[in-house]
Specification:
The protein has 23 helices and 30 strands. The protein is α+β, with helices and mostly antiparallel strands. The protein is 32% helix and 20% strand. Strands 4-3-6-7-1-2-5-8 form an eight-stranded mixed sheet. Among the domains are: 95 residues, Immunoglobulin-like; 187 residues, FAD/NAD(P)-binding domain (3-Layer(bba) Sandwich), CATH 3.50.50.60; 91 residues, no CATH class. It comes from Capronia coronata CBS 617.96.
């Protein structure tokens, strides 16, 4: 009998709805705190309309569960519905005119249990575990950071004119990977008035391939990002674990290839990157074999006596400290969790890391010295400095560099941003180096200001409804900005970034591939020569004839800054001498004299290499980055949960696009962006 009554109510509501002026329906499952209600008209109403949710046979607005919104006119075709956590399932949306007469009704709507309620219950069940082990695989898990309902809680949006919303003027400042990703997600959401603003004359930002000659000659090295970790295969179980958060890079490449109809001039293809080689050279403390040659990594592993006698004594306390830190940084169980879902692992570490202390509340130095009570001298020696670095960066970097399978882009990573040229050139404004940002509280528009020539006395202006800023924060802090909140202002003013300096050298042949123990690709050659850092051999065109380009020096942090002050010719000559000391006379014999040096601090359009936040900064500042202030949406790899990787920039672009869409009430479009790019950690 009860079932018949339900069917009868559903039938009656459907019959009633068909005869009313307004048709109300939802196109997507109501499974979160926000939903779009679509409105169509049998006839135009000239009175205000109130929208409610409640019983499908309600005869007056007062019988409803809650008010959804009000409209003064009928020029909209969508309603933004903020769904209360206690909203019952199976009820209907209704529309009422100013005389409280029914003018529209939906079919019964199924509402899934609110996901935030579910998450709180799960968290309560998990609170006894320091590192929960029940994360979902992949990146489909719910994320704890981006809450679409909270984003709009202070907005007076209830009805949406979709055409008007999609014609809003949106500026994307910065044409690096975050800016390009933001543009793509918004463009494919139907936003029709986008402008991409770039200070330099190129796309790509810090993605920078140095070509020696024409790109078709295939003589190049990466002076910015170089590689993408793909998966980790266990040497013990032979099980392969995919590194999920980098999948967005491969998805983006497939998408731009499709959009460019696989035009060979713009295709992005991946090839194997050789991260390690057993034949990499090991030149530390001047180590040489009896024949005078530098030993390989594998030879050192097989015969440690090649290193010569050690003058240092093993300190048991330092060995113990190393084990303690390894338990935190190289914890295989947590590394697996990070690989499966870095976003959920990040939240877990913040809440429960370091045995429940809170992962982002302690620097490595403070944890070892103040909490574990190691002596000051042991702490300095064991950690290396008394800096404010936290554990999180070491955790996810340990996972990435545990990868056993890597990829790079054939022809250079610059091919990825270059593939956007056919797509964005018509809406891209180069040579616009923004210096000032203003916000008008009355018009609620953002004005960007720049000079056509740096020596001009007057500024050029352009005004927008919203602006997405993907520029690194050290550059943003040189701008004149509107009055942001104290937290966002502090984030912009203090967020630290690393420095990198690279030197690439060209040789007549790939002589390293012709050694008795050939080196094919990799960054395995190790040296303690000051100012050299990593040495990487090309992973493309292995065993090819003709010239070859070696990344002969890759230094970061203090070295990356210090060597930039050395005159370029002096610096390059120093690197050539170091390569000859390691590889032999062949370096002098085959060096062509062609080189490329890129110290990012000298680049006026970037000035830095990657974000390296201090302890506590991600925990404090990520919520600030995810909040729109004065018409500004912050994006870029520095606003992500990880730093220094292209995937970080792309995911920040997905988040920024979603944030813009939610600002405009376009919830369906925001959900579509999230689903397409697998950014399922965003809760909308």
């Amino acid at each position: 009998m009860a079932g018949r009554l339900i069917l009868s109510a559903t039938f009656l509501s459907t019959v009633i709805a068909a005869s009313l002026p307004l048709h109300l329906h939802v196109k997507r499952a109501v499974d979160s705190g926000l939903a779009n209600v679509h409105i169509s008209y049998n006839e135009i109403l000239h009175s205000p309309v109130a929208f409610t949710y409640g019983p499908c046979l309600a005869k007056a607005p007062g019988e409803s569960h809650h008010l959804v919104g009000r409209s003064k006119s009928c020029d909209h075709d969508r309603l933004l519905w903020k769904v209360p956590e206690d909203a019952p399932t199976g009820h209907c949306l209704s529309a009422w005119d100013d005389k409280q007469s029914l003018v529209g009704r939906s079919d019964p709507i199924a509402i899934a249990p609110n996901r935030r309620t579910t998450r709180r219950r799960l968290r309560k069940r998990q609170e006894d575990f320091s590192i929960p082990m029940d994360n979902s695989s992949g990146i489909d898990a719910e994320g704890p950071w981006f809450d679409g309902v909270a984003l709009l809680q202070d907005k007076e949006i209830s009805v949406v004119n979709v055409q008007e919303a999609k014609s809003k003027e949106i500026a994307i400042v910065g044409a690096g990977m975050a800016g390009l990703m933001t543009w793509l997600a918004l463009n494919q959401s139907g936003m029709s008035n986008l402008s991409l603003i770039e200070a330099s004359q190129r796309l790509g930002g810090r993605v920078h391939t140095a070509y020696f000659g024409d790109p078709s000659e295939r003589q190049y090295q990466e002076m910015g990002p170089m590689r993408f970790p793909l998966s980790i295969t266990s040497s013990e179980t032979n099980e392969t674990l995919q590194i999920q958060d980098h999948r967005i890079v491969f998805d983006l490449a497939a998408e731009v290839n499709r959009l460019n109809s696989d035009d060979a001039n713009f295709t992005v293809d991946f090839i194997k990157w050789y991260q390690t080689s057993p034949n990499g050279l090991y030149y530390v403390n001047g180590a040489r074999k009896p024949n005078g040659q530098v030993p390989t990594v594998s030879e050192i592993r097989a015969n440690s006596s090649l290193l010569g006698p050690s003058s240092s004594q093993v300190d048991p306390k330092l060995d113990e400290l190393t084990d303690v830190l390894d338990n935190v940084i190289s914890n295989e169980t947590f590394i697996e969790q990070v690989a499966r879902n870095v976003y959920k692992a990040h939240k877990t570490f913040l809440d429960q890391g370091l045995g429940g202390l809170g992962g982002d509340d302690w620097s490595e130095f403070a944890y070892v010295h103040n909490y574990l009570n190691y002596a000051l001298n042991d702490t300095f020696v064991g950690i290396g400095d008394a800096g404010t670095e936290g554990f999180w960066d070491n955790l996810y970097e340990s996972m990435y560099f545990a990868a056993t399978d890597w990829r790079t882009i054939d022809g250079g990573l610059t091919r990825l941003p270059s593939a956007f040229h056919p797509l964005v050139d018509s809406i891209t404004y180069m040579n616009r180096k923004i210096q000032r940002v203003q916000y008008n509280d009355t018009t609620q528009r953002v004005t960007l200001q720049w000079k056509t020539d740096p020596l001009d006395r007057t500024f050029q202006n352009a005004s927008y409804d919203l602006a997405v800023v993907t520029v690194p924060m050290p550059l943003v802090r040189t701008w004149r900005l509107p009055g942001f909140s104290e937290l966002l202002t502090t984030a912009i003013d203090t967020y630290p970034y690393e420095q990198v300096c690279k030197v690439a050298l060209q040789f007549q042949t790939r002589f390293w591939e012709h050694f008795a123990q050939p080196i094919y690709g990799s960054c395995s050659t190790t040296t303690d020569i000051p100012g050299i850092g990593s040495i990487c051999y090309p992973s493309y065109d292995i065993n090819s004839t003709g010239p070859g380009v070696m990344l002969a020096s890759y230094t970061s942090s203090d070295d990356g800054l210090r060597w930039a002050s050395i005159p370029e010719e002096v610096h390059v000559n120093y690197v050539v001498d170091a390569m000859a000391e390691i590889h032999g006379q062949v370096v002098y014999d085959q060096y062509t004299g062609n080189y490329n040096r890129r110290c990012w601090v000298l680049d006026q359009y970037e000035t830095i290499s990657w974000a390296s936040p201090d302890v506590g900064m991600r925990k404090a500042f990520i919520p600030a980055f995810f909040k729109t202030e004065k018409g500004i949406v912050m994006s870029g790899e520095g606003t992500s949960y990880t730093s220094s990787w292209i995937s970080s920039a792309l995911e920040s672009g997905v988040r920024a696009a979603t944030q813009v869409l939610l600002e405009l009430g376009l919830v369906d479009e925001a959900k579509a962006v999230v689903e397409k790019w697998m950014a399922r950690w965003i809760d909308v």
